[in-house]
């Protein structure tokens, strides 16, 4: 048969609206006819999938009275495509939660302890993403400190996970000069060091821990709740440094929880600070001898959650961050399942503590 033309009536500027517009023009029926596949179509499943997608595309263009700003503290902030996956995953979460979210692109080099409060005065949450090399690291550590002490929702990804450990060691545990051996091989407290399998490799290329890896989640933690009670998840990694195992117990005694670990080896893969009991404060800088450090949403992941986020299945760590930002800005917002009333802390023997909200 000859050429077929299908109108794109009603298509807005988003490429995501094209599938439904082409369906309305009859392209799906035409293709099924050409391939003689009409009898293989599950119309109920197709209708359900189409409705889910249409709901997502509608949510992108629907008016949203609640607007958020999420600070992205990067060393490549001038090249925004470097963080395209994070940008899209934030969009997925915002559509699901009914808010408009703008990323505030902040160069890590421009942040220090003295100006962090001013830099983050107009943001509702902070993401510190991955990266390599020394440049910008101290700005990321300063960003972590401000978030921890002020209660600003925080998600650290890869290097952002490691920066959270460095900041905690320095400013909570009092380990002056704590660092990663990547940045200071001679530091007195190398709380971040090379993975054992990396220490014998001199060349950087092709030497990282890459791809899909299992993460065992500790019951009773925020991570366990975010992933709906699952005890194991699979995530994508790209790193060659880890939390030094010899420091893990000391760090946990000071109040940080490693809520995700390698199922067979002492590799820490997620961290969090306990959430406060409802009505209690958060923040603080005391170690194990002082008041317990809590935070509304302080999470780090050695893996890259943004790489597995999808429009109809937003990644839980990012959903938790955006939900916490909404809760901070407008506490009475109905967040559905993203309000936590499950246990948030655990003792050294694994017992759960009392809960608060996300």
Q: What does the model show?
A:
The protein is α/β, with parallel strands linked by helices and 358 residues long. The protein folds into 2 domains: 15-61, no CATH class; 70-338, Class I glutamine amidotransferase (GATase) domain (Rossmann fold, 3-Layer(aba) Sandwich), CATH 3.40.50.880. The protein is built from 10 helices and 12 strands. It has helices at 18-24, 27-35, 43-61, 84-97, 116-119, 137-150, 159-171, 222-226, 245-253, 316-329; strands at 67-74, 100-107, 125-128, 154-157, 179-180, 190-194, 209-217, 232-239, 241-243, 257-261, 268-272, 298-301. Strands 2-1-3-4-12-11-10-7-8 form a 9-stranded mixed sheet, with helices on both faces. A 3-stranded mixed sheet has the order 5-6-9. Helix 4 (84-97) links the parallel strand 1 (67-74) and strand 2. The longest helix is centred in the first third of the chain and has 19 residues, at 43-61. It is elongated. The model is unreliable at 201-206, 284-289 and 342-357 (pLDDT under 50).
């Amino acid at each position: 048969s000859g050429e077929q033309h299908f109108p794109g009536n009603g298509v807005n500027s988003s490429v995501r609206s094209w599938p439904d517009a082409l369906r309305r023009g009859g392209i799906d029926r035409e293709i099924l006819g050409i391939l003689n596949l009409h009898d293989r179509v599950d119309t109920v499943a197709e209708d359900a999938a189409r409705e889910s997608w249409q709901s997502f595309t509608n949510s992108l263009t629907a008016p949203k009275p609640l607007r958020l700003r999420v600070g992205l503290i990067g060393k490549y902030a001038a090249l925004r495509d470097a963080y395209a996956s994070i940008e899209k995953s934030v969009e997925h979460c915002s559509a699901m939660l009914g808010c408009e979210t703008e990323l505030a692109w902040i160069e890590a080099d421009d942040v220090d302890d003295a100006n962090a409060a001013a830099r983050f005065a107009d943001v509702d949450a902070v993401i510190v993403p991955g990266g390599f090399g020394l440049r910008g690291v101290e700005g990321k550590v300063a960003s972590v400190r401000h978030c921890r002490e002020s209660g600003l929702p925080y998600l650290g990804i890869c290097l952002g996970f490691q920066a959270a450990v460095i900041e905690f060691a320095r400013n909570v545990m009092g380990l002056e000069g704590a660092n990663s051996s990547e940045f200071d091989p001679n530091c007195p407290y190398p709380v971040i060091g090379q993975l054992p399998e990396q220490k014998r490799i001199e060349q950087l290329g092709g030497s990282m821990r890459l791809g899909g890896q299992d993460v065992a989640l500790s019951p009773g933690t925020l991570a366990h709740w975010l992933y709906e009670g699952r005890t194991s998840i699979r995530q994508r990694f790209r790193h060659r440094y880890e939390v030094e195992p010899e420091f893990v117990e000391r760090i946990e005694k000071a109040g940080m929880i490693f809520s995700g670990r390698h199922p067979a080896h002492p590799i820490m893969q997620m961290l969090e600070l306990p959430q406060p009991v409802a009505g209690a404060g958060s923040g603080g800088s005391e170690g194990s001898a002082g008041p317990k450090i809590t935070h509304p949403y302080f999470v780090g992941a050695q893996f890259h959650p943004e790489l597995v986020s999808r429009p109809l299945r937003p990644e839980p760590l990012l959903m938790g961050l955006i939900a916490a930002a909404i809760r901070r800005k407008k506490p009475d917002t109905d967040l559905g399942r993203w309000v936590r009333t499950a246990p948030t802390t655990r003792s050294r023997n694994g017992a759960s503590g009392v809960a608060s909200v996300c």
